[in-house]
Amino acid sequence: MKTAIRIILMLLAICMLITAVACGTTTEVKESETRQGDQPGTTPEETETEDDKYDEWGREKIPSPFDVEKTNFDDTVITIIYKTQDRDFVSEDRNGEVVNDTIFERNLEAEEDLGVILEGRSIDHHDISSTVQTAHLSGTSDFDIVAHYAYYGTTTALAGCYENLLTEPNLHLDQPYWNQNYSAVQNINNKQYFAIGSMNILVIDRSLGVFFNKSMVKNMGLENPYETVIDGKWTLETLIDYTENSWQDLNNNDKMDAEDYFGLGSSEGYGGWFLPCELTFVTQDEYGYHDLNLDIERASDAMDLLITMFKKNNGAFVDQYGGSDEPVKMFVNDQIMFLVNNVFRNEQFNAMIRNMSSDYGLIPQPKLDEIQEKYHCWVQDAYSTMSLMSNCKNKEAACAAWDYLNYLSYIDLYPAYTEVIVKVKYLRDSESSKCFDYIVDGAIFDIGELYGYEIGDLAHGMCREIINTGNNLVASKYDSNQAKWLANLEKIDNFYFDE
Questions:
Q1: Which helix (H) or strand (E) holds 128?
Q2: If one looks up domain 76-204+381-428 in CATH, what number appears?
Q3: pTM, whole model, 2 decimals?
Q4: Phi-psi category of 118—alpha, beta or left, where left has phi over 0 and alpha has psi -120 to 50?
């Protein structure tokens, strides 16, 4: 099955290349993106040698982190606890579904190559923190690795429940199968208690994007959203211009409800809009200590637009707190033109969009303004971040298995999910696939967001709260909460800098 999956991925890449050649398409390559082997004047032999450095998806080929011929942990049992509905690790058997079967084969390969036995234990996400802290305090070793709900995981780290990952020789956190942007933020004073890698596909699932109904956009005479994105003109103001005063009272009851038409809808509430505007709350000084750094003027400008877009816009239908399927149903039924949604919230949401009759596209969250160079996305904090338990019974085996699972995921799972499931089965055109890359590559991680539960919801919680009032309270909220946030940041620093 492992070989079959890799053959599927290889054939897909070949088909994409054949299609491009048959259609006479060309790809413009920026000078900064050109590899040495693609430079003019290289011989075929040189080009082939350089191409051997990259896989069919243009990613760097990397060797195995372990010599599997010499590595054997004598069937050591490695137990991972994870939140219910987490699909990063779990696959009980093959069922013909690509991601499920790839995970199943990956786990088998890791067990065979390293001589370990992988066990998973599902726990309700509300109970993980108490389970971890109880195990830490009692000194029991019932599990080794924790896949925690990202928003709540900081509590267990600051309680001393985890090992410093930077001291574990069997974790190769500098390798491309680990998320380097995430690790850079989580590395505080040479201590890191959380990591995510290629096995953590929930990070992709929870990334926010904007789906749009192609027919509705065309009927409104609007510019092609893809061209707007490519031209760097996809901004909050543009989205407002496209959707304001768009409400149509289809059921003639003189009130906005789910039976009407709207230009803008959101199943994710009002949170998650500061980071796409390149607004972060926390910075580190030269010694690694943290301080607040919010650009109040830029944040206020963004909030003016967000309030206009969501609260003053006579054309927005928003589930205030997120999680409702009503906006998704309306989008599928041609009642919403632009829908803010996770790339993949759950199978129900995904199936509704994937199977809708009207054609749709996917673009990133808009920038604050055209001056902002890059598109970014908010990764909703319901993904799984992973840690090593303080009383792990065999750290060498556990870290090797964890590292190797991410290595194998880099080879098979990540491309199977992104290139086959998302880009081929879920999205419907190459432009959406390109925008999907913008979304994934543009994810920002900020201490103010990652430790929001401990600091006091100074990122998306504050954003959601202010938008809901309909008044731009950024400056006053920041001033009134600054002392509390700084005190909580100090507690975090005390933990990381306590020798």
A1: helix 128-138
A2: 3.40.190.10
A3: 0.88
A4: beta
